Amino acid sequence: MDDFDFLVGTWDVANRWRTDFLDADSEWEEFPAVSRVSRHFDGGASFDEIEFPTKGFAGLTLQLYDREREQWNLHWASRRTGVLIPPVTGRFDGASGDGVFTGRDTHDGKAVLVRFEWTRTRTDSPRWEQFFSVDDGASWVHNWTMDFTRRTA
Questions:
Q1: Whole-angstrom Cα distance, residue 74 to residue 68?
Q2: What is the DSSP letter of 123?
Q3: pTM
Q4: Is 7 helix (H, G, I), strand (E, B) or coil?
C-alpha cells in the first residue's frame, strides 16, 4: 500500500515531451519542473504538485490506493483547466518495483487509451513515462518522459 513512498520529497524533473502527443514522428521538447510530494493515509495516498516554470503552468496528481481492488488510482489536474481528468489505474510489481497504470481519456478530441509507467522506483532517479494509443492498445505513441532527481536538504 505504500508503493508511492519512493516519491515523497522534493525533486528536480527533466521533462521531454512530443510537440504532438499523437504523432510518434513529432519533435521532442525539453523543459524543467519541480515536484513536491507528500504522503497521506498511512501510505494509501500521496499528493504530488508539479510546477513547470518555463511553460507557465502547474499540475497535481492525487494517488489513492483502492484497498478492495488492491490497485492505485492516479488522478491528474492542471492549473490551466482546473478539471480532474479520468484516472489511470494499476499497480506496482513487487519484484521490480515498476508500475503500470492505464485509463481512457481524450486528447485533441480523439479518444485515447493512456498508459503511465513508473520505473527505477528504488533509486534516487525514478522515471515516469506516458504513452497514448488511438487504436485501443494495438500501437502506442511514447509522448512524455520525466526523469526525477531528488533534491538534498
A1: 16
A2: S
A3: 0.94
A4: helix
The cell numbers describing 17, all together, are 515531451
State how far the Cα of 121 lies from the Cα of 113, in Å rounded to an integer: 24
Residue pLDDT tens, the chain, 153 long: 799 999 999 999 999 999 999 999 999 999 999 999 999 999 999 999 999 999 999 999 999 999 999 999 999 999 988 889 889 999 999 999 999 999 999 999 999 999 999 999 999 899 999 999 999 999 999 999 999 999 986
Alpha-carbon span 21 to 15, nearest angstrom = 14
* Strand spans (E) along the chain: 9-18, 28-40, 45-52, 57-66, 71-78, 88-92, 99-107, 110-119, 127-133, 141-150
